[in-house]
Amino acid sequence: MDIRLVRAVLAEDSSGIRHNVPNVRYEKWEINSLGFRGKEIDLKKKEGQIRIVCLGGSETFGVFEDEGKEWPSQLGEMLKDEFPKVEVINASVAGLTIKNKKAYVEKYVLPLKPDIMITTQGALLPITDSMRGVESKRLVNKVEGKMVKNPVMKFISHLMVFLKVEEAIRGLLPEFLSARMNIWRLRRRIRKKERKHLTNKELMDKVPEYIILEFEEDLRLFVQYLKESHIAPVISTYPTLFTPLNKDIHKNLLLSIRRLCVELSDDGVIDASIKFNDAMRRIASKQNVALIDNDHLMPKTLEYFVDYSHYTDKGAEFIAKNIHRFLNHSGLIK
User: Fold this and answer.
1) For the chain, is the Cβ count within 10 Å smaller at the N or the C terminus?
2) What is the 8-class DSSP label of residue 38?
3) pTM for this model (two decimals)
4) Could you tell me whether strands 18-20 and 290-292 are parallel, antiparallel, or unpaired per DSSP bridges?
5) Rounded (10°) CA dihedral 53, 59, 64, 68
6) What confidence tens digit (pLDDT) does each residue in 24-59 have?
7) Strand order across the 141-142 sheet
8) Superfamily assignment of 3-163+208-245+267-330 in CATH?
Protein backbone atom coordinates (compact mmCIF):
# COMPACT_ATOMS: atom_id res chain seq x y z
CA MET A 1 0.00 0.00 0.00
CA ASP A 2 1.28 3.47 -0.93
CA ILE A 3 3.15 4.86 2.07
CA ARG A 4 1.70 8.31 1.36
CA LEU A 5 -1.82 6.90 1.53
CA VAL A 6 -0.99 5.15 4.81
CA ARG A 7 0.35 8.37 6.25
CA ALA A 8 -2.73 10.34 5.16
CA VAL A 9 -5.47 7.90 6.11
CA LEU A 10 -4.48 5.54 8.94
CA ALA A 11 -4.35 6.25 12.66
CA GLU A 12 -4.27 4.45 15.97
CA ASP A 13 -6.51 5.70 18.77
CA SER A 14 -5.73 5.95 22.49
CA SER A 15 -6.87 2.32 22.95
CA GLY A 16 -4.44 1.13 20.29
CA ILE A 17 -7.19 0.43 17.75
CA ARG A 18 -6.24 1.01 14.12
CA HIS A 19 -8.84 2.99 12.17
CA ASN A 20 -9.27 5.47 9.34
CA VAL A 21 -8.93 9.18 10.09
CA PRO A 22 -12.35 10.87 9.63
CA ASN A 23 -12.86 13.68 7.11
CA VAL A 24 -9.70 12.99 5.11
CA ARG A 25 -9.34 13.34 1.36
CA TYR A 26 -6.15 12.13 -0.29
CA GLU A 27 -6.16 11.98 -4.09
CA LYS A 28 -8.98 9.52 -5.03
CA TRP A 29 -9.48 8.24 -1.45
CA GLU A 30 -12.13 9.95 0.67
CA ILE A 31 -12.92 9.10 4.29
CA ASN A 32 -16.28 10.31 5.64
CA SER A 33 -16.93 11.86 9.05
CA LEU A 34 -17.46 8.41 10.65
CA GLY A 35 -14.09 7.11 9.42
CA PHE A 36 -15.31 4.92 6.55
CA ARG A 37 -14.36 5.10 2.89
CA GLY A 38 -16.98 6.70 0.69
CA LYS A 39 -19.81 9.18 0.88
CA GLU A 40 -21.35 10.53 4.08
CA ILE A 41 -23.81 8.30 5.93
CA ASP A 42 -26.00 8.86 8.96
CA LEU A 43 -24.93 7.27 12.21
CA LYS A 44 -28.55 6.48 13.04
CA LYS A 45 -30.13 3.78 10.89
CA LYS A 46 -33.41 4.69 9.23
CA GLU A 47 -36.52 2.64 9.88
CA GLY A 48 -36.61 -0.42 7.62
CA GLN A 49 -33.06 0.14 6.43
CA ILE A 50 -30.69 -2.83 6.02
CA ARG A 51 -27.00 -2.18 6.51
CA ILE A 52 -24.31 -4.39 4.96
CA VAL A 53 -20.81 -3.75 6.27
CA CYS A 54 -17.78 -4.87 4.25
CA LEU A 55 -14.80 -5.52 6.53
CA GLY A 56 -11.34 -6.39 5.27
CA GLY A 57 -7.91 -4.88 4.77
CA SER A 58 -6.44 -2.82 1.96
CA GLU A 59 -7.82 -5.21 -0.68
CA THR A 60 -11.39 -4.35 0.40
CA PHE A 61 -10.65 -0.71 1.29
CA GLY A 62 -9.52 -0.37 -2.33
CA VAL A 63 -6.06 0.74 -3.46
CA PHE A 64 -5.51 0.42 -7.20
CA GLU A 65 -9.07 0.63 -8.50
CA ASP A 66 -10.41 3.85 -10.00
CA GLU A 67 -12.47 6.00 -7.63
CA GLY A 68 -15.78 4.31 -6.88
CA LYS A 69 -14.62 0.99 -8.35
CA GLU A 70 -13.55 -0.78 -5.14
CA TRP A 71 -15.81 -3.80 -4.72
CA PRO A 72 -17.98 -2.53 -1.79
CA SER A 73 -18.83 0.57 -3.85
CA GLN A 74 -19.64 -1.54 -6.91
CA LEU A 75 -21.76 -3.87 -4.75
CA GLY A 76 -23.75 -0.87 -3.47
CA GLU A 77 -24.44 0.22 -7.05
CA MET A 78 -25.60 -3.27 -8.00
CA LEU A 79 -28.04 -3.45 -5.06
CA LYS A 80 -29.49 0.04 -4.97
CA ASP A 81 -32.25 -0.37 -7.57
CA GLU A 82 -33.64 -3.76 -6.51
CA PHE A 83 -33.06 -3.14 -2.78
CA PRO A 84 -33.40 0.64 -2.24
CA LYS A 85 -33.39 0.23 1.55
CA VAL A 86 -30.00 -1.53 1.55
CA GLU A 87 -26.92 0.54 2.44
CA VAL A 88 -23.43 -0.88 1.80
CA ILE A 89 -20.67 0.51 4.05
CA ASN A 90 -16.95 -0.02 3.45
CA ALA A 91 -15.59 -0.19 7.00
CA SER A 92 -12.27 -1.72 5.94
CA VAL A 93 -8.95 -0.63 7.45
CA ALA A 94 -5.60 -1.46 5.86
CA GLY A 95 -3.58 -3.81 8.05
CA LEU A 96 -6.49 -4.73 10.34
CA THR A 97 -5.95 -8.32 11.52
CA ILE A 98 -8.38 -10.86 12.91
CA LYS A 99 -7.14 -10.36 16.50
CA ASN A 100 -8.12 -6.67 16.39
CA LYS A 101 -11.38 -6.90 14.49
CA LYS A 102 -13.63 -7.32 17.53
CA ALA A 103 -12.27 -4.21 19.27
CA TYR A 104 -12.55 -2.20 16.04
CA VAL A 105 -16.10 -3.37 15.31
CA GLU A 106 -17.22 -2.79 18.89
CA LYS A 107 -16.02 0.81 18.94
CA TYR A 108 -16.46 2.02 15.37
CA VAL A 109 -18.94 -0.26 13.56
CA LEU A 110 -21.46 -1.50 16.14
CA PRO A 111 -23.04 1.99 16.60
CA LEU A 112 -24.22 1.71 12.97
CA LYS A 113 -26.34 -1.33 13.92
CA PRO A 114 -25.29 -3.39 10.88
CA ASP A 115 -27.45 -6.33 9.81
CA ILE A 116 -24.94 -8.23 7.66
CA MET A 117 -21.14 -8.23 7.76
CA ILE A 118 -19.07 -9.55 4.87
CA THR A 119 -15.63 -10.25 6.27
CA THR A 120 -12.36 -11.56 4.85
CA GLN A 121 -8.82 -11.89 6.16
CA GLY A 122 -5.41 -12.17 4.53
CA ALA A 123 -2.73 -14.49 5.86
CA LEU A 124 0.61 -12.71 5.85
CA LEU A 125 0.16 -10.03 8.53
CA PRO A 126 -1.37 -12.43 11.10
CA ILE A 127 1.49 -14.88 10.40
CA THR A 128 4.10 -12.15 10.85
CA ASP A 129 2.51 -11.05 14.13
CA SER A 130 2.27 -14.61 15.44
CA MET A 131 5.81 -15.67 14.48
CA ARG A 132 7.46 -12.61 15.98
CA GLY A 133 5.58 -12.94 19.25
CA VAL A 134 4.08 -9.45 19.20
CA GLU A 135 1.96 -7.46 16.82
CA SER A 136 4.32 -6.11 14.20
CA LYS A 137 4.62 -2.35 14.07
CA ARG A 138 2.79 -1.03 11.06
CA LEU A 139 2.85 2.58 10.08
CA VAL A 140 0.05 4.65 11.61
CA ASN A 141 -0.41 8.03 13.23
CA LYS A 142 -0.93 8.01 16.98
CA VAL A 143 -4.08 9.77 18.12
CA GLU A 144 -4.93 10.68 21.71
CA GLY A 145 -8.27 12.39 21.16
CA LYS A 146 -6.51 14.61 18.63
CA MET A 147 -3.73 14.28 16.08
CA VAL A 148 -0.26 14.43 17.61
CA LYS A 149 3.16 14.69 16.04
CA ASN A 150 4.78 11.35 15.35
CA PRO A 151 8.56 11.33 14.78
CA VAL A 152 8.20 8.42 12.36
CA MET A 153 5.73 10.43 10.31
CA LYS A 154 8.07 13.42 10.29
CA PHE A 155 10.84 11.17 9.00
CA ILE A 156 8.49 9.75 6.35
CA SER A 157 7.58 13.23 5.09
CA HIS A 158 11.29 13.97 4.50
CA LEU A 159 11.78 10.54 2.98
CA MET A 160 8.94 11.11 0.52
CA VAL A 161 10.74 14.14 -0.92
CA PHE A 162 13.73 11.92 -1.61
CA LEU A 163 11.54 9.14 -3.06
CA LYS A 164 9.79 11.56 -5.43
CA VAL A 165 13.17 12.71 -6.75
CA GLU A 166 14.29 9.09 -7.10
CA GLU A 167 11.03 8.20 -8.86
CA ALA A 168 11.52 11.06 -11.33
CA ILE A 169 15.06 9.86 -12.08
CA ARG A 170 13.86 6.29 -12.63
CA GLY A 171 11.21 7.61 -15.00
CA LEU A 172 14.01 8.83 -17.29
CA LEU A 173 15.66 5.39 -17.43
CA PRO A 174 14.89 2.75 -20.08
CA GLU A 175 12.12 0.39 -18.95
CA PHE A 176 14.36 -2.69 -18.60
CA LEU A 177 16.89 -0.72 -16.52
CA SER A 178 14.16 0.70 -14.28
CA ALA A 179 12.75 -2.83 -13.74
CA ARG A 180 16.20 -4.17 -12.80
CA MET A 181 16.69 -1.27 -10.41
CA ASN A 182 13.34 -2.06 -8.72
CA ILE A 183 14.28 -5.74 -8.30
CA TRP A 184 17.67 -4.80 -6.88
CA ARG A 185 16.05 -2.47 -4.35
CA LEU A 186 13.49 -5.13 -3.39
CA ARG A 187 16.15 -7.77 -2.82
CA ARG A 188 18.22 -5.37 -0.76
CA ARG A 189 15.24 -4.57 1.51
CA ILE A 190 14.35 -8.23 1.89
CA ARG A 191 17.94 -9.19 2.77
CA LYS A 192 17.94 -6.47 5.42
CA LYS A 193 14.70 -7.82 6.93
CA GLU A 194 15.99 -11.39 6.75
CA ARG A 195 19.08 -10.41 8.73
CA LYS A 196 16.79 -8.95 11.38
CA HIS A 197 14.13 -11.68 11.60
CA LEU A 198 15.82 -14.84 10.31
CA THR A 199 18.87 -15.15 12.53
CA ASN A 200 20.03 -18.79 12.16
CA LYS A 201 16.64 -19.79 10.72
CA GLU A 202 15.72 -21.29 7.38
CA LEU A 203 12.99 -19.94 5.10
CA MET A 204 9.79 -21.90 5.61
CA ASP A 205 7.96 -23.56 2.71
CA LYS A 206 5.04 -24.48 4.99
CA VAL A 207 3.13 -22.43 7.57
CA PRO A 208 3.40 -23.97 11.06
CA GLU A 209 0.21 -25.75 12.13
CA TYR A 210 -0.07 -23.81 15.40
CA ILE A 211 -0.53 -20.56 13.42
CA ILE A 212 -3.41 -22.03 11.43
CA LEU A 213 -5.07 -23.31 14.62
CA GLU A 214 -4.62 -19.91 16.27
CA PHE A 215 -6.19 -18.19 13.27
CA GLU A 216 -9.14 -20.61 13.26
CA GLU A 217 -9.83 -19.94 16.92
CA ASP A 218 -9.62 -16.16 16.44
CA LEU A 219 -12.01 -16.35 13.48
CA ARG A 220 -14.39 -18.61 15.40
CA LEU A 221 -14.52 -16.15 18.29
CA PHE A 222 -15.10 -13.22 15.91
CA VAL A 223 -17.95 -15.01 14.13
CA GLN A 224 -19.46 -15.88 17.49
CA TYR A 225 -19.20 -12.24 18.56
CA LEU A 226 -21.03 -11.10 15.41
CA LYS A 227 -23.83 -13.58 16.04
CA GLU A 228 -24.19 -12.43 19.64
CA SER A 229 -24.36 -8.85 18.35
CA HIS A 230 -27.24 -9.84 16.01
CA ILE A 231 -25.13 -9.38 12.88
CA ALA A 232 -25.32 -12.05 10.17
CA PRO A 233 -21.72 -13.05 9.30
CA VAL A 234 -20.77 -13.78 5.71
CA ILE A 235 -17.22 -15.07 5.26
CA SER A 236 -15.41 -14.47 1.99
CA THR A 237 -12.27 -16.42 1.26
CA TYR A 238 -9.27 -14.25 0.40
CA PRO A 239 -8.42 -14.24 -3.32
CA THR A 240 -4.71 -14.14 -4.15
CA LEU A 241 -2.87 -14.19 -7.47
CA PHE A 242 -0.22 -16.82 -6.88
CA THR A 243 -0.57 -20.57 -7.36
CA PRO A 244 2.01 -23.38 -7.66
CA LEU A 245 1.38 -23.28 -11.42
CA ASN A 246 1.93 -19.54 -12.04
CA LYS A 247 4.54 -18.68 -9.39
CA ASP A 248 7.43 -18.62 -11.91
CA ILE A 249 5.50 -16.22 -14.16
CA HIS A 250 5.02 -13.77 -11.28
CA LYS A 251 8.44 -14.14 -9.66
CA ASN A 252 8.95 -10.40 -9.17
CA LEU A 253 5.50 -9.89 -7.61
CA LEU A 254 6.18 -12.81 -5.26
CA LEU A 255 9.46 -11.20 -4.30
CA SER A 256 7.65 -7.94 -3.58
CA ILE A 257 5.05 -9.49 -1.25
CA ARG A 258 7.69 -11.38 0.74
CA ARG A 259 8.59 -8.06 2.36
CA LEU A 260 5.53 -8.53 4.58
CA CYS A 261 6.67 -11.91 5.88
CA VAL A 262 10.32 -12.66 5.16
CA GLU A 263 10.09 -15.84 7.24
CA LEU A 264 8.23 -17.52 4.36
CA SER A 265 9.72 -18.62 1.04
CA ASP A 266 7.83 -18.15 -2.23
CA ASP A 267 6.24 -21.57 -1.69
CA GLY A 268 5.50 -20.56 1.91
CA VAL A 269 3.52 -17.51 0.74
CA ILE A 270 1.39 -19.73 -1.50
CA ASP A 271 0.98 -22.32 1.26
CA ALA A 272 -0.23 -19.58 3.63
CA SER A 273 -2.97 -18.46 1.24
CA ILE A 274 -4.16 -22.03 0.70
CA LYS A 275 -4.21 -22.95 4.39
CA PHE A 276 -5.86 -19.74 5.61
CA ASN A 277 -8.60 -20.04 3.01
CA ASP A 278 -9.14 -23.68 3.98
CA ALA A 279 -9.44 -22.53 7.60
CA MET A 280 -12.12 -20.00 6.61
CA ARG A 281 -14.05 -22.74 4.82
CA ARG A 282 -13.88 -24.98 7.90
CA ILE A 283 -15.06 -22.24 10.27
CA ALA A 284 -17.95 -21.30 7.98
CA SER A 285 -19.03 -24.95 7.93
CA LYS A 286 -18.61 -25.53 11.68
CA GLN A 287 -20.31 -22.26 12.63
CA ASN A 288 -23.04 -22.72 10.02
CA VAL A 289 -22.51 -19.30 8.46
CA ALA A 290 -22.54 -18.21 4.82
CA LEU A 291 -19.37 -18.59 2.76
CA ILE A 292 -18.53 -16.96 -0.57
CA ASP A 293 -15.50 -18.76 -2.00
CA ASN A 294 -14.03 -15.86 -3.96
CA ASP A 295 -10.54 -17.36 -3.90
CA HIS A 296 -11.81 -20.46 -5.69
CA LEU A 297 -13.93 -18.48 -8.16
CA MET A 298 -11.57 -15.68 -9.17
CA PRO A 299 -9.25 -16.21 -12.19
CA LYS A 300 -5.57 -16.01 -11.20
CA THR A 301 -4.41 -13.56 -13.85
CA LEU A 302 -3.23 -9.96 -14.05
CA GLU A 303 -6.51 -9.08 -15.71
CA TYR A 304 -8.04 -9.29 -12.23
CA PHE A 305 -5.06 -8.70 -9.92
CA VAL A 306 -2.54 -5.87 -9.70
CA ASP A 307 -0.34 -7.80 -7.28
CA TYR A 308 -0.64 -10.56 -4.66
CA SER A 309 -4.07 -9.55 -3.36
CA HIS A 310 -5.12 -6.15 -4.73
CA TYR A 311 -7.58 -5.93 -7.59
CA THR A 312 -7.97 -4.19 -10.89
CA ASP A 313 -11.36 -2.58 -11.60
CA LYS A 314 -12.36 -5.82 -13.31
CA GLY A 315 -11.21 -7.91 -10.34
CA ALA A 316 -13.21 -5.77 -7.92
CA GLU A 317 -16.24 -6.03 -10.20
CA PHE A 318 -15.87 -9.83 -10.21
CA ILE A 319 -15.90 -9.89 -6.38
CA ALA A 320 -18.92 -7.55 -6.24
CA LYS A 321 -20.86 -9.69 -8.72
CA ASN A 322 -20.17 -12.87 -6.75
CA ILE A 323 -21.44 -11.27 -3.54
CA HIS A 324 -24.42 -9.70 -5.31
CA ARG A 325 -25.35 -13.10 -6.76
CA PHE A 326 -25.05 -14.72 -3.33
CA LEU A 327 -27.19 -12.07 -1.61
CA ASN A 328 -29.88 -12.46 -4.25
CA HIS A 329 -29.99 -16.24 -4.12
CA SER A 330 -29.58 -16.68 -0.38
CA GLY A 331 -32.54 -14.50 0.57
CA LEU A 332 -30.40 -13.05 3.35
CA ILE A 333 -31.49 -9.48 2.61
CA LYS A 334 -35.19 -10.34 2.48
Assistant:
1) C
2) S
3) 0.86
4) unpaired
5) -10
6) 998 999 999 999 999 999 999 999 999 999 999 999
7) 18-20, 10-12, 141-142
8) SGNH hydrolase (3.40.50.1110)
